Amino acid sequence: MDAGAELESQIGQWRGFVERHQAISAADVDEMEDHLRNQISDLSASGLMDDEAFLVAVKRMGDVDSISREFAREHSDRLWKQLVLMPETDRPGDHPARRDLVATIGFAIVAGVAVKIGSTILPENDFARNVGLFVLPFLTGYFAWKRQMRARTAAALLLPFAVAAVVLNVYPFAEGNATEIIAALHAPVVLWFVVGVAYVGGEWRSDRRRMDFIRFTGEWLVYLALLGLGGGVLIALTIQAFDALGMDVEWVVEGWILPFGSAGAMIIAAWLVEAKQAVVENIAPVLTRVFTPLTTVMLLVLLVALAVRGSVVDADRDLLILMDAILVLVFGLLLYAISARDPLLPPDVFDRMQLILVVSALAVDALMLAVMLTRITQSGVTPNKVVGLGMNAVLLVNLFWSAWLLVGFLRGRAVFGAMERWQTRYLPVFGIWAALVVVALPPIFGFN
């Protein structure tokens, strides 16, 4: 990469971080970027290299958190409007936020209709296997519409859904067998990457946009969980109220509210992440600061428990599945923490905590990999063992290099941007692995 491209990449990372401090409007960010570029130009003219000029200019700009707080104080009225109102527009009749909300509701209703029809006409097992195909195409469509993707590009995004539909419904799965369950669990993972391509507006090669999608995924899951909890409480109270009146409404809840509510919540959660980016801080930094230490302690305690137990080769399969689920959770938390961090800040205590978390996860992953290999040697190959082995191997590579990069960053031999690039560029490996599991694994094991 030449010096000019490297400088533009650094400015892009800086701008991306500033844009996440949403007390600052797009116009404010443009003004700040112009000032930054002028500073870089002046410093370069005085003899500094581009990367040196960039670092000095950023330092002179001041701490972005302080700038964000200053904007928050000066524009408190703007912040309240961003929290609870649609933004005002300068042109009469131009209501982009309102149109966005109407479109969101439309996509949510259509997704709910699809889920309702699918749950009505398909047997329960077939519907469960295809559940991702009833919602994720509409979430993809929402982002394709929002990003104003070209019709041809948006239409191309339908191809993976068509392939998934063929694989999930033409393959002669034996009902309830391992390959059917594995395919059903991994198909939504593959299709989520299609949602990601729509989310980034087709800019999948951009590291910054991939990181934006990682951040979106974490916040989407948080909003979805909140909507689910709130909806569950509301439904329970409603049922109890009607029961007190001697009226049975469970059939309405099961037949209509749950299909439309579950599908609609996925679309609404995406809209919330997008719409409420205009608030001073997003929730990523708060969640990572709370859950990273807690998860680290949990992993360390788990490692001690495994050491006390001795051999885990003969452990129950449910324990191994739970351990892999914990590793996936840890990896997700790692990605979320990386997406929330200012890459320009120096190492701190939280980064050291991150290293302990990654090393602990790496130890657990290596142990699980050894257990999988031993069980395969002792009792042969099964679809579940192959999936577990592959997933642990993919995670092992990621965690090992993540630990290496974190050590380099803490010692001052690498920049944090290297960690971001590693994660965003490794991300497609998970999608490729999930696609192989869905498409290739079932026929290899005779669909059993």
From TrEMBL:
The chain crosses the membrane at residues 101-121, 127-145, 157-174, 180-200, 220-241, 256-274, 286-308, 320-340, 352-373, 393-414, 426-445. Keywords: Membrane, Transmembrane, Transmembrane helix. It comes from the Bacteria. The keyword Signal does not apply. The keyword Membrane applies. This is Permease prefix domain 1-containing protein.
